[in-house]
Each structure stands twice: as C-alpha cells, then as structure tokens.
Design a protein that fits this description.
Number of strands: 11
Strand content: 25-35%
Radius of gyration: 19 Å
Shape: globular
CATH class of the largest domain: Alpha Beta
Structural class: alpha+beta
Bound molecules: cytidine-5'-monophosphate
C-alpha cells in the first residue's frame, strides 16, 4: 500500500482467498469459539473492491452470489470503522466477487480486511495496520490473517497471526462443489465427534516443507475439521475423492470446507489436474500463493 493518501478519491484493492494448509483444533473456549493452530497461505483467487468517495455508504456487487446490504461483511467493516473513528464520510464500494462463499476460502473475511484498508485510505482515518487487524478480529475470526504476508500461523480463535517470511513453491489447484458448508455447523459437529486417537503432525511442520516437492507435503496437510465436514456434507459430492481419483498427490481441505486444494509442482501438472476435476463435476481454479495480500490495483486518482 502507498502511504501518501492525501488525494485519494477512488482506489481499487484485490482481496485474495486463503487456504488452510493445516488446521488443528486445540480446544473449545468458553466464548463458543475454538482455539486453533493453523498454517494459512493467501492464494491468487481474488475479489476486487473498488472504492469511490460518495455522500452515503453503499455497496453494489457483481459476479458470484453474496449477501447484499448490511449483512455483507464489507458493510460490517465499514460500519465498524465509522464507529471506531467517528468518521462521517460515505463511500460507494463495488465488489466484484470471484471467491465462492461458504467454501472455506475466507472470501468474506478478505473482503472485510480490504474494506478496512480501502476506507481507511479513502477517508484518511489514519489507523495503522495493527489497529485495522484488531478491528477486523471483531468482524470475523479470519479477518486478521489478511493483514499478514502470504503465509502466517494463526492461533487463538484467529486473532493471533504470526507472519512467516516464506512463500510456498507450489501451484495450487482449488476445487469446490456446488454447495457450501456453514462454519458454525461444522464446529458443532466437531464437538460431537470423538477426538482423533492417532498423534498428528504439528501444524507448523509444514513450514519446513514449503520448498519441497508437493508429494512430500501430503502427510502434513492435516485439517481436524475434515471428519466433521464429512458429517455435515453427508452423501453430497466429496471433492477429496474427485481430486484423488484425478491423480492429485497432496490434497487438503481448507477451513471448514467444502473446498479442497491440491498442491502441484508445475503449472502443467496443475492445469492437467484442473481439467480432470472439471470433467468430474467440481468447480476449479488454478492459483499460486500470493505475496500480494492487500495489493493496490490502481493508484490514487
Ligand atoms: O468468526 P466467524 O464468524 O468466522 O465464525 C463463524 C462460526 O464458526 C462461529 O460462530 C463459531 O461457531 C465457529 N468458530 C469457532 N472457532 C473459531 C472460528 C469459528 O468455533 N476459531
């Protein structure tokens, strides 16, 4: 982000999706949330948010379906920023939605983070990244991680984000079914299931593998929510099976599902896998890890 915001009337930000390379649930908390340890990577599937100074606050959307109006996390973020700073300016926010909702890609949280960054610049409210990330935590558990670099380790309910100075070398084939899974339902199902008996690799073991061949990461892509997501999914499309039958060598579930990702060593491997997955009936997108979290697309005008 540029820091000379004195003349900004309009700006545009790209909000990336994330994948949870690992996710361990450490325990239930008294506030209804769960303590986690998760290694997360931002990936190059982006929503675009365009901001323009306007008398009132309003949002328009195009692309994939998203809640309109006040229940949209972008509007929630805007109202939180107003409440925090006392700013009484307006804005027209146009959201181009490409990250499917309810699949575990954190699209709504990423949009909320971008809204805080964009409006903070547009309104010159002067909050620092730490202030914005704290404000973000009150909007959704995944919002703070979108203030970090490509890879971070997320702890607590999501509010503690440790940046990792490394970018994975893999291509990522994202794949998702026609339905989403409600996060709260997946956590509730997790609470009803027995805890895993076998010892699991520490979430952070993956950090030593970010530049190793994809195949070597397979045993480390552990997501404790997957058995619970399986229960909530029931007999509907299992994207893990589709990916594995298509020949993917390293597959993980992101967030609370329903989406999965497969790691690939080359673009050719990733595109070939994506084609087979598409033929088997899942939606797919070939992405790379992105270091460009909160990248500004156009400068001030
Ligand atoms: O914070 P967010 O709105 O994304 O969380 C949605 C739901 O997911 C929460 O209401 C809670 O049931 C569950 N959750 C949880 N522990 C977390 C994150 C989310 O139990 N760390």
């Amino acid at each position: 982000m540029r820091d000379d915001t004195s003349s900004i009337e309009r700006l545009s930000l790209e909000a990336p999706a994330k994948v949870n390379l690992t996710l361990r649930v450490l325990g239930a908390r008294s506030d209804g949330y769960h303590d986690l340890e998760s290694v997360v990577a931002a990936v190059s599937l982006f929503d675009t948010l365009e901001f323009e100074a306007a008398p009132n606050l309003k949002i328009t959307c195009e692309g994939m379906a998203v809640p309109a109006g006040n229940e949209n996390l972008v509007m929630k973020a805007a109202r939180r920023l107003v409440a925090q700073t006392g700013c009484c300016k307006g804005a027209h926010i146009h959201l181009k939605k490409r990250i499917p909702a309810g699949r575990g890609f954190g699209g709504g949280s990423s949009d909320a983070a971008a809204a805080l960054v964009g409006l903070n610049a547009l309104w010159r409210t002067g909050l620092g990244p730490g202030d914005l990330a704290r404000l973000g935590a009150s909007i959704g558990s995944d919002v703070p991680l979108f203030f970090g670099p490509c890879v971070s380790v997320m702890r607590g309910r999501g509010e503690h984000v440790e940046p990792v100075p490394a970018v994975p070398c893999w291509w990522m084939v994202l794949a998702w079914p026609a339905f989403g899974l409600p996060t709260a339902e997946v956590y509730a199902a997790y609470d009803r299931l027995p805890r895993p008996a076998a010892p699991r690799p520490a979430a952070t073991e993956i950090l030593g593998s970010l530049s190793r061949p994809a195949r070597e990461a397979q045993a480390l892509l552990v997501n404790d929510l997957e058995p619970a997501a399986d229960v909530v999914r029931g007999a509907r499309t299992n994207v893990r099976v589709i990916l594995q039958e298509a020949g993917a060598v390293a597959v993980g579930m992101t967030g609370s599902g329903s989406a999965y990702f497969a790691l690939a060593d080359t673009r050719a491997d990733a595109c070939c896998l994506a084609e087979r997955i598409r033929a088997a009936g899942a939606e797919t997108y070939v992405a790379t890890p992105t270091a460009d979290v909160q990248a500004q697309k156009e400068g001030p005008s």
